[in-house]
Amino acid sequence: MATLVPLSAIDPAMVEDLLDASFGEGRQARTAYRIREGLDWLEGLSFAVLDEEDYLAGTIQLWPVALTDPQGRAHPMIMVGPVAVMPGRQGEGFGKALMAASLGAIDAGFDDGAAPLPQVMIGDPDYYGRWDFVADHTGGWHCPGPFEKARLLARSGNPAILPAEGMLGPWNP
């Protein structure tokens, strides 16, 4: 049986090896890395999954980012990803479990009635749509590097709060 653990319990070198295996060694050149440049992932929202033999099978990292609107106002968000599952173990439900853990932690973290921060990711709309990630509100958003507009996805309980335009980048509160 698989076990979810905080990502902080995993040796960082093992996480890097998993990310290289999942996305290739040139992964740091991707636009998502530019968006979260210089940031540390959010410990309470980032997880790893160990398989039935306690081998690292997957990880998910979440990051504090912001969409800066044309007036220069930063709108804080949480960037989801990378969601990485060891090649050869994909399709076994590890990615779904990681998404459920992270999004569940986001949604549960606001017991005082406050809405969670909107979440953003670059990913497959068909896959991530099951968690309400859509590109409906991101058409005027920009990233510090190339990206496919249809793959820039957002999830928010109240999409009306999302700025129509802006540039994604790190958020250092």
Folded structure, characterized:
There is one protein chain. The protein is 21% helix and 29% strand. The protein is of the alpha+beta class. Strands 1, 2, 3, 4, 5, 6, 7 and 8 form an eight-stranded mixed sheet that branches. Strand 3 and strand 4 form a beta hairpin. The protein is globular and about 50 Å long.
Helix-strand pattern: EHHEEEHEHEEE
Shape: globular
Structural class: alpha+beta
Main β-sheet description = 8 strands, mixed
Whole-angstrom Rg: 16 Å
Which runs of at least 5 residues are low in confidence (pLDDT < 50)?
none
Helix content, binned percent: 10-25%
Give average pLDDT, whole number: 94
Measured distance between first and last alpha carbons: 39 Å
Number of discrete helical segments: 4
Strand content: 25-35%
The overall strand count is 8
Summary tags:
8 strands, globular, alpha+beta, 8-stranded mixed beta sheet
Brief description of this entry?
This protein is an alpha+beta fold and 173 residues long. Helix content is 21%, strand content 29%.
Topology:
Layout: E1 3-6, H1 12-23, H2 31-35, E2 47-50, E3 56-68, E4 74-85, H3 94-108, E5 119-122, H4 125-128, E6 140-142, E7 152-155, E8 165-170
Parallel strand pairs: 4-5, 6-8
Antiparallel strand pairs: 1-2, 2-3, 3-4, 3-8, 5-7
